[in-house]
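Hi D.,

Good news: the full-assembly prediction came through. Inputs first.
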Amino acid sequence: MGRPRTPLLDRARITTTALELVDEQGEFSVPQIARRLGVQTGSVYHHVDGRDGIVELMRERICEAIDSATLDAGPWDAAVSAWAHSYRAAFAAHPRVIPLLMTSPVRAPKVLEQYERAVGLLLTAGFAVADVMPLITGLENLVLGSALDLAAPETMWELREETPTPQLARALAAVGAGRADAAFDAALEGLIGHGRTLLARTTP
Amino acid sequence: MGRPRTPLLDRARITTTALELVDEQGEFSVPQIARRLGVQTGSVYHHVDGRDGIVELMRERICEAIDSATLDAGPWDAAVSAWAHSYRAAFAAHPRVIPLLMTSPVRAPKVLEQYERAVGLLLTAGFAVADVMPLITGLENLVLGSALDLAAPETMWELREETPTPQLARALAAVGAGRADAAFDAALEGLIGHGRTLLARTTP
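Then the structure:
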């Protein structure tokens, strides 16, 4: 289980290299990291807790870019909205890492602490404890789906004469640029509105 | 630009192989498809419109599994909810293809037709034309984020003694199994609620 014995610099370089690989090819391997850094594969394993440890280092790196101070500034709806925007921006910088992180358990201490603060925010606001994780996870699904959408091409629908789609054409013309932001804001407003409804039921 | 000149069977085999590769490794290449099928790379190109054509074949294949008849039945909110559930299930079977499809323009005729129907549903329901794409895209962000979440491990947060997160522990215990579904339903209800609000403003 080799705990890291070396300076942070080395783990940082391994993390940076793993992220570069995932950005380029959607995946990484420890031998690939070693090759890029010009070291033996075994040396990489001296610095990290295996492949899973590298995944957690990437998670920690990306989550450092989320402004978690948003979670302390009050009322819950403004805080959640600010957190969601910052969360989306952090992952939009590395869209291809999203599937990797979403399908691997969260172990990074700093990331667990950020969840603790998000849960605390909603409990303090008066949400029923059973409503908290569905709201946070629903928000994350939206945030990460939207982060992927930010990496989409400007023209996402290529309409074709041989497939007439006049209503789609009208709807696309009506929204124009800022399509991804308008979608995120609409869905986020919906989720926060749902939260308000739940809260009104919980605290009569 | 070689238009397909061969029976559907061959394009179907290319699509199946590309999907297998993406399911396994998050990516595919035309030479890899050729190797798996035991043919020359050039032969693959005879059947499809290049790499982008294969991406569109994968999109078409996955979207065939969406029950688009949901878009024709009943009030818009029930229709959107049924479509979203079917859409999520189709992509949950191939989570690793999601980033690839979300970052490549939609050209597949059958998929464009499905968008046309979704837009038509919302226009008929009375939505302002500028509200339609943000709602559909917000729904897709949620659907695809949630499809990735369905591929997450049962225990997504591995709490650690050395990082006390008592509120997170309580919130996780309160939701239990069905976490991903509860999150999707909460966010979907929020989005549909937002739609109702928009509609009430549009049709006074």
